[in-house]
Amino acid sequence: MLRRLIKPVARPTDIYAESGGPSAPPPPARDTLRRMFGYLRPYRARFVFAISIYMACITISQFYPYIDRILIDDHIAKRNPDGFIGMLLLAAGAHVAVWVGVLARSLLMSRLSLDILVDLRRELFHHVANLSFNFHEKEPVGKTMTRFIGDANTLNDFLTNQMANVAHDIMAGIMVIALMLAINPALTAIALFMLPILTLLGIYMRPRLHEGWDRVRENMTLFNIFLAENIAGMRVIQAFVRENVNLEQFRKANARVVTEWMKVISLQAWFSPLVEITRATALVIILFLAARQFDWVGGDALTVGTLVAFTAYISNLWAPISTLTNLYVVMQATLASAEKVFQLLDTPQGIKDAPAAKQLPRAVGEVRFEDVSFGYDPARPVLKNINLSIEPGQMVALVGQTGSGKTTIASLVSRFYDIQSGRITIDGFDIRTVTQRSLREQVGMVLQEPFIFSDTIASNIRYGRPNASMDEVIAAAKLANCHDFIDKLNDGYHTVATERGSMFSVGQRQLISIARAILADPRILVLDEATSAVDTETEMLIQQAFERLMRGRTSIVIAHRLSTIRKADQIVVLKDGQIMEAGSHAALMQRGGYYAQLVNAQAAGEH
Amino acid sequence: MRRLFGFLRPHRRFFIALTIVNVLLSAMLTIGPLVTKAIVDDVIGARRLDLLLPYVGIFLLVTAVRTTMTYFYSYGQNKLGQLIMTDVRAALYRKMLALQFSFYDKEQTGRLMSRISSDVESTRLFLSQILVESFSHIFTITLASIAMLLQDALLAAIAIGPMLASGFGLYLIHKSLAGPWSKQHERFAKLSATLQDSLSGIKVVKAFAQEAQEERKFDDTVQEVKAGNIEIQDRWNYRWMFVGSIGRFMQLVLFGVGGYRVMNGDISIGTLVAVISLSLLLLGAINALGAQLTAFSQTATASVRIYQLLDEPVTIRSPRDLPASAADPIRGEIDFKNVSFAYATSKASVLKQIDLHVPAGSSLALVGATGSGKSTLINLIARFYDPSSGQVCVDGKDIKTLDLAALRHQIGYVSQDNLLFSSSIAENIAFGRPDATQEEIERAAKLAQAHDFILKMKDGYKTRIGERGVGLSGGQRQRVAIARAILLDPKILILDDSMSALDAETEKLLQAAIATVMAGRTTILIAHRLSTVERADHIIVLKEGAIIEQGTHRQLIQASGYYRQVLELQRMATTEALNEPLDVTPKFLPGGV
């Protein structure tokens, strides 16, 4: 049951895989990498500087065991105090230099890394904010947010931290081997026998561990989805007395996480013991050979200093191998993130201003649709040959069933989509020849589900005109009948709205969004009348506010209420993307066509 | 904190075993340098090659034991962590299953989720990792200190100061970062919220041509996060520069002082080597302990939150000594006796002295504006809430004396939000009776007028809902929710706002079906359509928590009271919808919302 309940969510990574549309094959990894490194380019001087400092620090710090060996063998073992203090001071000096260097590198690198992250997030936001409705209607907000947060972080982490780590490990590896060779080439050659073992260990273990942890994460995600749904649906669970069944499901989901977790652990727990044993074996072999005083190991090779230095160096060899064998895995994950980020950045910006786009002058408000055809998918037209002429100041009601194309007509006026054929003009200007900004500043919209930003009420009202004064805000709120309830709030207009304005009723949100439209003072209005239930009193307030808003403006209303429709100068009846008939209420009723039928059927159905 | 350890109790043997492993591990870690010392002094210094083999044997043995213990330790520590986490999670989840509706009225899903995920995670980390490791560090510190003192008291005394300074310094760094970190979390949350706000409201953004403004807002939060990050990293970097370099300086001081002592013949070179590696071992343990100390206070706050939830009183539960009859099948007669109710969150009564009698098998329609108390009233019948005063009785028995599960099993409840779960449609319909057969499921679906559209879907009854956009329309969800309630074959059927999203035709079909289903059941419905209200055996009109009118449709019309007034007002004026089905009730009483 549980398996079936949660299985198809499957790998959390492909939850949204299908919504990506016709996706091109992923670009070659080399191109993706090159593009990634492009983000480093503006900072390359700082990057090179930071890495150079880091390299210097690594070089010096790898000398520590070498210095220790000199201290032990040349001074302590030989009881030779000459230059002992000097050597100690040199060692201390080297350490001070390393720490200052490490500090400098950390300061540089953290800033560099954050700068890149800021660049990336800004670029993403700029791009996403300018993407057309086509994109935003298709993509879930959560998915887009992942690009900004998780994926951007992964990409940035690779460019800065991982790159620095790789530099560190290569440098450290070279230094360790070089210094070991300087101490004793023969013993070094023998110590290095563990390199292939450790490498194999890394190559074998790393991908398996990575996969294992991926599975743990997947199961965690499923568990969390299960849990979130259960908590949200707790009332239904209790109403249907499902407590025991769900508790069992819970146990199973949890058990899967635990099982996967322990599977990885039983592999991972071997990791450090195996490394330890390899190291110990290498050390023991060296000890034996050195003790035998073979000529080829340099005769009297077995000194305390050499033992101490080799012990340290053999340990230091592991870190580079560990990271380098992990690099492949990290790179796969990074490439995956980078591809997703770039795919988003490459999404074409559907609607762009024409190269020679002009400002739309302050409109009188004449709107014309000339033979307009449009489909979200060009193969399936939603609107067919629409001809419509709206005089300045007129109110037009769009009427028709769900799917008839009302909402589509409304969104075309603001040019949220580009039509496939025909022309839409405002005061004679084709809307494709003016800037989107100047167009939308003059076409106001009140959406059916008003959106309230998590900001102060005042900022919400002055959304379309951020520089409006407080008096103007209040005047607009009064016209929109929302001043009274705003005034009663603790902080009045400075009250910060909760997420999506959940502190307000639907009706109140509607009123605030009307105030917003009034303040923006557009010449042309597009209203999507709400269908949701509001009590009669609020309903009347909304109607009144709408009327005030429409006064003196051209308005296009997607109407649901007969009372609204009756007031329209022109009623446009749509069916299947075509205009069936148009005219005033009286004219249409007299005509006895589709509209009259609709009205009559509606009335009959209710009595 | 003490209660936190309570989670350890069931696994105390495991914990003790793990502690023993830890002691052994510390012992092996301490012996290591001593073996090295023997090799240095006896084999290398005194050239006793005959000792090489036995010493190396000991060295390998110590390594073998140590690595084995490392394995057991990391396996065992993870196992213990998972065991504890399972216990805590299950305890929390069981608690959540038992908690009453009033609890969920005031808690957000997100907050409860973080109880069961991040708070439990920090408890797990604390009990299985931090606690066990702290013990391990303490053993290591003890053993290594003793070993060091025995090797050379003077060198041990020299090393102790810097080591303590280092451990304490690290503790201070972590402590000083706790504040900035939590501020940084807030900043980051703000960044996410801003982003989400802009993306969710993108239509408004575009309609008002405010892309640039949103970009500025986002940019501000991005810059704030950056500044916060730099502050934290700088703080860490500058301080770590001092603390992190203590180790090497200490090592060099030991080399210096120890070196002169070796040259003077006070100690052997092996002793010096052993002391230095012991001091590094010790330093590591002290630093780790210092870094972990801050976790104690963080875990304490997490566990307080966990216990707050576990201590939440369960107010609605079956009485203790249930008579066998408490789970008997019911007939379905419902009585409200002087029932008043107020939600815990506000003082105002939502229901005021309601008296109501619903004979078994009859139907009752509730009418009233939003906030008049309709939903509250029906929520009392399945005992989702207990009344503040008065009694709710089923078959003449106070429902508080009945077996809760048995009572709810006999009540079919179709809630306002029609919440479905992300599983197949069949599983959703069989939600209250997971053992139902396919025939039973289909019969329920047919009655609820859902069968036809289900068959039209890609995988029929196996179609999964709620994910990857395989969504149902509002009307379809409602019908599945109705089928879910019908399948229970309940004696009492409660329909809360259940037909608002249906088109006229489906609604007619469904009403006919429901009329069939209603036969032999007590039905309480919050009516949304005139036609449904008309058909009920009895109608009550609620206003501000009180019954202001009741009777049959005919009686109420004739009474020329509120019901009729509102009805006429409605017909006359506002909401004759053309494109959407007429939705009467929520609008027709003034003064709602």
Explain the overall architecture:
The complex is a heterodimer of chains A (607) and B (593). Chain A has 607 residues and is α/β, with parallel strands linked by helices. Chain A has helices spanning 2-6, 29-38, 44-61, 64-76, 84-129, 133-138, 141-183, 185-191, 194-232, 234-239, 243-292, 304-346, 406-413, 436-442, 457-461, 470-479, 483-488, 506-520, 536-550, 562-567, 585-591, 594-605; strands at 367-374, 383-390, 395-399, 421-426, 429-430, 443-446, 524-528, 554-558, 570-575, 578-583. The longest helix of chain A is centred in the middle third of the chain and has 50 residues, at 243-292. Mean pLDDT of chain A is 84; it is low at 1-23. Chain B is an alpha/beta fold and 593 residues long. In chain B, the strands form two sheets. Chain B has a six-stranded mixed β-sheet with strand order 6-7-8-3-9-10, sandwiched between helices. Chain B has a four-stranded antiparallel β-sheet with strand order 2-1-4-5, with helices on one face. In chain B, helix 2 packs parallel to helix 5 (109-151), helix 3 (52-98) packs antiparallel against helix 5 and helix 6 (153-200) packs parallel to helix 9 (269-310). The longest helix of chain B has 53 residues, at 211-263. Chain B starts with a helix and ends in a 5-residue tail after the last helix. Chains A and B meet through helix 1, helix 4, helix 5, helix 7 and helix 9 of A and helix 2, helix 3, helix 5, helix 6 and helix 7 of B.
